[in-house]
Amino acid sequence: MVAHSSDQKGDTKGIRDTQSSIEPAEAARFAPLPLVADADELMGKVQTFLDRGVSPESIFVDLLAPSARRLGQLWETDACDFLDVTMGLWRLQEVMHETARLSPGTIKGRDNPPSILLTPIPGETHSFGSLMVEEVFARAGWRSEVLLEPQRSELLKVVAGNSYDVVGLTISCDCLSSNLTDIITAIRSVSKSPSTKVIIGGRMVNAHPELVEQCGADGTATDAISALSLAERIVLETHSSASPTA
What does the alpha-carbon distance between residue 37 and residue 45 come to, in Å, rounded to a whole number? Predict the structure, then answer.
């Protein structure tokens, strides 16, 4: 498990309100490059976006995430093999961490930061999506942790032993709704905190948003920035409902 904390204060406003943005055509040109370019070459291209004022969060969501999705599509159509995709995702992960290092936050930390555990659903082998979402939450001042390729027993053990405001599951591959319902129910049944909320996301959920209601999740978001906004709202509502009324 990877733990991450940040000295930043949570603020989801203005994350994309920078002097520049990433155009879809630019993201499309970048998308296949992790298959052929090393991490240093990729970072050089990312640096051009940073230099013109694109935020790290926008780099993650509007450039690296589409690239990861493109690699997955190429694998699904047998245009590249599993090793190619694995190496490409590793390079994207290196670029993500270097981008975060070059652009540290400057806002003071929270007195009592909310907490989140992010994890791919047990059985999935790639963790890039969870790592990217975790980076966005950490930069917003959350106490965040991520599990890499967890087994079901490991995930439940972590949830039972630690208090989290939110558990975020990413589902990229096909998954039966009954299996997703089962893991969400299990998380709630063993959670150390009775108020823990479960949110879901990833390619599978984006394609089938009805899974949220079918599986009893507390919400979903289409990308990391939207997930942060959702989680902030959920935590605020949970704390407000738990506060004694006058």
Answer: 11
Q: Is the pTM of this model over 0.70?
A: yes
Contact status, residue 6 vs residue 105, Cβ threshold 8 Å = yes
For residues 6 and 206, the model is more confident at 206
Residue 138 burial (10 A CB sphere; 0-12, 13-18, 19+): buried
Contacts of 199 (CB under 8 A, 6+ apart): 166, 167, 168, 169, 217, 218, 219, 220, 221, 227, 230, 231, 234
Closest to 237 in 3D by CA, of 187, 200, 209, 195? 195
Q: Please, what are the domains in the chain? A: 24-102 (1.10.1240), 115-242 (3.40.50.280)
- At position 124, the amino acid (one-letter code) is E
CB neighbours (10 Å) of residue 56?
Answer: 23
- Please give the structure tokens belonging to residue 115: 């907490």
Q: With contact defined as beta carbons under 8 Å apart, do 73 and 85 qualify?
A: no
Compute the distance between CA of residue 218 and CA of residue 37 in angstroms, rounded to an integer: 39
Pick 4 or 184 by higher pLDDT. Answer: 184
**What are the CA-CA distances from residue 196 to residues 87, 191, 217, 235 (Å)?**
35, 7, 11, 9
